[in-house]
Amino acid sequence: IFFSLISLINFEALPEKRLPSAVIMGVRKCGTRALLQFLSLHRDIEIAKEEVHFFNRKWSNGLDWYLSQMPTVKRHQISVEKTPGYFISFQAPSRIYAVNSAAKLLLIVREPVARAISDYTQIFNNRLARNKSKLAEFDNLAIKNGRVMGNYKPISTSIYHLHIRKWLDIFNPNSIHIIDGDNLIRNPLEELRKVEKFLQLDPFINNSMIYYNSTRKFYCMKKDSKNICLGSTKGRSHRPVTNQTIETLKKFYYPHNKEFFKIVNRTFSWN
Ligand code: A3P
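Above: inputs. Below: predicted complex with adenosine-3'-5'-diphosphate.
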């Protein structure tokens, strides 16, 4: 009787924690939170709600710790985590590969000048919130004596080809799917359908799960009969920047963008 009872329990169906099959590894300020939240609409996906920072900052915490940060999943489900800081980290690519050489990597990119200004706006606002001294304006930090400060982090993070090279040194290009962040804003389902395909999941996320919120001017989600939009730090107005700065930066990024397009064998509408 004992053994027949045991055999009735489907152990595999019990929820458990599992390492992520897919990681959103960047890029910061390109829509990483929107992408993660939209993916959580899929019945086969559970997400780690907080950024985990294991492969860049918390490696010494060990794999058990990493696993403990993952959501509980059912047998048919996969877990997904996002940590935008992985993209610019030197160690993250080889560490992810060491843990799971079959990991699927999701990279969301956005027009690089807008990304840089969004990045700066976040840093500016965070300082303000912490009552720290006011940050100089973007125009003065990004360009000095007519020269673009390529080492300034909001500028360097947008030089996508510099960073993607490290990943392609280690991962097969087929392991990396690039999401067009500008299109995720305009047409989320189109981008999500491609992600589902890349993750080898059924096409599940559909029109009935998202809606356009004309006050927020972004798509939001319908989940468990609730309407959910991202918080006010997503899609906020940017700090003012002169047209001249924008023009100079567009010129600066032009060859870098071309290099990125060549490496990933795909173009975006930035140049
Ligand atoms: P801005 O605040 O510059 O507009 P991340 O989550 O990686 O920090 O990215 C933030 C960006 O996500 C926002 O940048 C916003 O443009 C973009 N985004 C994309 N889809 C969004 C959505 N549905 N709701 C809010 N923001 C969205």
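The first helix runs from residue 2 to 8.
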